[in-house]
Amino acid sequence: MQAVMNPKYPGLSVRVADEGFDPYVWGNDFSFEVSAYGVPQMGQRVDQWPVERVLPYRKCYGIDPEEFASFRNAADSAIFMAYLDDRAVGHVVVSTNWNGFAHVDELAVVLPARRHGVAKALLDVAQFWARKKNLPGMMLETQNNNLGACRLYERCGYVLGGIDHLRYRGIDPQTREVAIFWYRLFMPERDSL
Prior knowledge:
Residues 41-188 form the N-acetyltransferase domain. One of its GO terms (molecular function) is N-acetyltransferase activity. InterPro entries: Acyl_CoA_acyltransferase (IPR016181), GNAT_dom (IPR000182), NAT_camello-type (IPR050769), Streptothricin_AcTrfase (IPR008125). Keywords: Transferase. This is TDP-fucosamine acetyltransferase. Helices cover 18% and strands 36% of the residues. The protein has an eight-stranded mixed β-sheet with strand order 1-2-5-6-7-8-10-9, covered by helices on one side. It has helices at 21-26, 118-132, 147-155, 188-191, and strands at residues 4-5, 12-16, 32-38, 51-59, 77-84, 87-96, 102-109, 137-143, 159-164, 179-185. The chain starts with a strand and ends with a helix. The longest helix has 15 residues, at 118-132. It has a single domain, classed as Aminopeptidase, CATH 3.40.630. The protein is of the alpha+beta class.
């Protein structure tokens, strides 16, 4: 796949990950600040969810590029990297899930590049990949402490498909983190590229 340019942010492009993926991941900070937990509500927009404020803290998922080594050059998965003025600033890992949907296994943008259209550009390329494979839509999961991501997915046409209050209790029995499953269904008559 050739580089995809973003007209709103002319220095932004997305292309298939190369040998620079591992050093890029190891050399960047993908953490974000948590200042609230949303209480997801089916059928309501993210800005309508009740919010529980917390003392701000940094959250980092500890991204390991080796976890996705088998995703490169595979027929049912891909890794794309975003570049802002030729500097690697984000990535998306996408695969075909067991249920036939494209699954966004990971989406991350480095802290200084946020709010420059990087995440949306990566989701757009993942969507193009999924449509080329004639998949019925896309799915991904985030948590209720990442409200910025929830707002992004909603803006990109994703809808809330499920809420799992117990998913992270095995890691921390006291956690307030809730798994939120988002879906972007492709409807050819309305959504065609």
